[in-house]
Amino acid sequence: STARKRELTVADTTCTYCGVGCRFELYGRGEEILGVRPADPDRTPANDFSTCVKGKFGYDYVGSDERLTTPLVREDGEFREASWDEALDLVAERLTEVREEHGADSLAVTSSSKSTNEANFLAQKFARQVLGTPHVDNCTRLCHSSTVAALKQTVGYGAMTNRINEDVGETDCYLITGSNTTESHPVLATRIVQNVRDGADLFVFDPRKMTVADHADQYTRTRPGTDIAWLNGMMRHIVEEDLYDEAFVEERTRQFDDLVETVEPYTPDLVEEVSGVPPADLERAAETIARSETCVYGWAMGLTQHSHGTRNALAIANLALLCGHVGKPRSGLSPFRGQNNVQGGGGDMGPIPNNLPGYQPVDDEDVLDRFEASWGVRPPDRVGLRITDMFSAVPGVEETVSGRSEADAYGGDEPGTDEEDRGTEDPGADEGYTPENTDVRGMYIVGENPALSEPDVQHAEEALEALDLLVVQELFMTETAEHADVVLPAASMAEKYGTVTNTERRIQLVRPAAESPGEARTDVAILQDLAGRLGFDWGYGSPDDVMDEINELTPIYGGVTHERLEERGEGLQWPCWDEDHPGTPYLYEDEFNFDDGLARFVPSELPDELYPLATEEYPFTLTTGRVLYHWHTGSMTRRGTASMKQVPESFVTIHPEAAERLGVVDDEYVSVESRQGEVVVRANVEETSGPDVLFIPMHFVHGAVNRLTKEELDPLSKIPEYKVTNVRVRPLGRE
Ligand code: SF4
């Protein structure tokens, strides 16, 4: 009613954007968000009073005219409006048809790191229980899956080991690499910069000199994709100078000798030749880090999004262990997670093909027994396809061109594939389902936009078109939804109740401040309705009931109840085993997450042959990433006034020397071309990267950078190589 619409709603909630997990009060009226105000600092553990520009001004998308308000069904090539009953009956019928004709494993589900833990738990339950398919994954595959694969092998849990404020914000020293912290995790970056001003040391190694490097004691420009060389070189120096933490290595780790042997060839000369890191920089950083009582190792996509991403993450984990900087306060391994719920919804809740919720292996009989007892159906016990492989498994789609074959890329075995050495049963690799032996014919996509986020999007688009059935559950008619047979309108984060888990494993509440437009419904409601039409009466009365089931089936969330979160402003950090458990602020204080309690050094070497940074035909290396004002594929921020005012379109950064060589002037349009495709974008002539490295952000449809990237995957985690693409540039003149 109009009276109700005029009512002001104030929700104590968690930010919809990044993994820092800032909390604030969100003001809504009807379908609109009016603004954001700081909340009581007792209830804002990650941010106190701070928020960044996205948290403060990034809510236009909620009330956007472009929100989907009714289910849409494709008929004769066009979308037409449909009732929920019609749309969901159709989806149920078509899913059943595909399953009957081609088997359950011809269906795949992708869930969303932007939705709640409760919704993600249900998305994987929908895949495994209702559809019976093992193929369920989400966009964490594209960001930190290599981190997860590496940390599971070395320390046990695929997660940040420490806290934002008390540890990252208070350490003596930082090594930050491959992270544009100031733009991607702004409030966290503010903490770091403040602590550096108060005297902490900061070392930044990165191909791009981002703002965080302005505050560094030392910024070292590296060549993209060569991090293993300088990380191993540092470890070699630390061992040689006897600067490592002997007691820690002796008492809390194993396989030290293997590490020493592996890093031995990484002499300062070799490191400089491969990575471009001068010996003096290497030694200074290595010595300061090793001598620091505490140190935080921060990284993001620059380290992970490589076709050897797992090896990169192993190398940084090895370094932190060597220096004894894990398992104590003010230290630790800090992979900065991207989306607001990529840790929880993307990982902890199990919408990943190798793990049931809580990182429980899909082939563990005891675990399967427990799920079967609860669900009445035994979940599939084989590891399904990763999202990056799902698109290659659609029949009739040509193979994508990578520029070289996977066999050329890797010589020898992947590190850590020996079971005893890695101390875990499944780091992510599996020989079962592959795109070669699997046909994916139907996809159910919850809140993902692979038509912009996949590498080589031409290939993803072709696959989306070739599917027998594509259902997309979304806020907007995204580039992916345009290919769908049925589009289901979903509620945004500002319209629902549930939990999200930030980068420091902290589970916090989100609460509704606005009403959903038209007939849009929450992911939980849609999935439950659809499950019912497919013969599974879930019977949840509210997200609280879903959390009860999470408690029962996910040991690390055993004591995380909505009731406790309502009372505790500071949320709860997992593992939280039962209702009396206070949560775990930092991991591995007493033991690592292995049976023997010891961490593993899993030595990591450069691949035999690195992907070439340039060729004669394609003389530049292109890297991709984010900018402060936008978010991922831009489906939310491209609908926001503040963000579009600041950065209205895509661009490529070009170093002045290269610009001069090419005859490119600032602000003119240029063509950037790779083996995969071509885009036209505006040139930003600036010195962020070296003369051979270009950068294009990932947020735009015109100038979509993933028209250029290739589908070359890390063999263990299947993360794509987004950071090294060979390209050439042609000026087009001012327009
Ligand atoms: Fe939101 Fe991240 Fe900005 Fe905090 S730093 S307000 S969580 S986008």
From TrEMBL:
Would you name any one GO CC term? Answer: membrane
The entry's keywords: 2Fe-2S, 4Fe-4S, Iron, Iron-sulfur, Metal-binding, Oxidoreductase, Repeat
Q: Does the keyword Translocase apply?
A: no
Q: Where is the composition biased (Acidic residues)?
A: 415-429
Q: Which GO terms describe its molecular function?
A: 2 iron, 2 sulfur cluster binding; 4 iron, 4 sulfur cluster binding; metal ion binding; molybdopterin cofactor binding; NADH dehydrogenase activity
One GO term (biological process): respiratory electron transport chain
Instruction: Tell me the segments the record calls region Disordered.
Output: 397-438
Keyword tRNA-binding (UniProt): no
Domain 4Fe-4S Mo/W bis-MGD-type, first and last residues per copy: 8-66
| Similarity-based family | Belongs to the prokaryotic molybdopterin-containing oxidoreductase family.
Q: State the protein's name.
A: Molybdopterin-dependent oxidoreductase
Q: What species is given as this protein's source?
A: Halorarum salinum
